[in-house]
Amino acid sequence: MKKARIAVLLAGCGVYDGSEIHEAVFTMLAIQESGNSYQCFAPDKPQYHVINHFTGQEESQPRNVLHEAARIARGDIKALETLNVADFDALIIPGGFGAAKNLNQWAIAGPDGMIDGDVKAVILAFSAAGKVLGALCMGPTVLAKAFEDTDISPLLTVGTTSEPSPYDIAAISAGMTSLGSKVVMKTIAEIAVDKKHKIVTAPCYMMEASILQVRENARQLVDAVISLC
Q1: Using one digit for the tens of pLDDT, what is the confidence trace for 61-71?
Q2: Cα(2)–Cα(71) distance, rounded to whole angstroms?
Q3: How many domains does the chain have?
Q4: CA distance 136 to 92
Q5: Has 40 been annotated as catalytic?
Q6: Is the pTM of this model over 0.90?
Q7: CATH assignment at residue 36
């Protein structure tokens, strides 16, 4: 069977201003455990801001999204502008506030926030080529923004209002709905699979979850992405 080649789109390093490290690493691990391969990418641009992850306070020094994401990828990462969609079968976007600050700006302006032009172009190119898209945690908001004002209404999830969450799942879901997405409620033990548009999403740390639960949820998403490839 042909092995899947998956592009992993990172947004920096660290839950509060970059990619959620657990989600990113679990995604890469699950891809390799399944016998497939990945390549990391990130936008080569300044990140929105820098958060001290010990104090939670904003700091003044600038950082670069690509350079910070290279920490997670152990240096094996490429600028998003070099991504050739023809070389890959799928694109997966881990979560973290960086997805909602550096890939789009949902964390700043909700559904009215801008999406990075290169990020949008890559997502739409994967979709147009009939390839698979996956997103974890806040990653689905990036997909929702990318498909805004298109004829595609993706089926997405960021979690459920029926179980504990540190975030306002109802408001985020309503925001994605306002952009034309179809939102479904899923627990940390579930994923949403849009077979028509080849899109898989998972709540991960949008819910109150242990590291073991997030590991399993990321694996579920990767397995579903590969099955659609």
Answers
A1: 899 999 999 99
A2: 30
A3: 1
A4: 8
A5: no
A6: yes
A7: 3.40.50.880
